[in-house]
Amino acid sequence: MNVEESARALRGFHLTAAMVVTGLVLSALAQLPGANPLRSYRVVWPQHWPFFTELSQDVLVAYNVPDLTPLVPRRPWDGLRREGSVVVAETRRVALRVPDAYWQACGEATAAMCGEEVARSSVFTLDGSTITSRLCGRVAVAVERSVPKRHVHRIAVVEVECGP
After folding, report:
1. Whole-angstrom Cα distance, residue 6 to residue 12?
2. Does the pLDDT of residue 33 top 70, yes or no?
3. Residues 159 and 131 sit within 8 Å (Cβ to Cβ)
């Protein structure tokens, strides 16, 4: 390797190092207390890359009725077990079968704040013979959105009738 090639390789290394350090600094600043995470992600991902940020995706969450606590609480170690994934898949299957007339608009930050909407909503009865036992009985299915900030977009109450 001659001197010219070495200098060019060194410039490439410095450019790459500068880009990595800039990305790390921006990521660290986005995690500081008081920082708006959504705005910070838009700085780091200016194209709003939904594949990486999942900002454009609705999240389906199943809640116990009447207390509106999540059926599967979010815990840091959930990635080690697949129970949450099964309930999420079953919740999606249930939500797709609920007619539009049974969904109530909410707009609140949490499902517990949607108690009034849940109380006045009609209950949709569903044959749950193929549903896991976690979703049997009366559950509330919520569609949650992250934009502009996390909130419950709409919610439906479903009576899932499972086998004996």
Report:
1. 10
2. yes
3. no
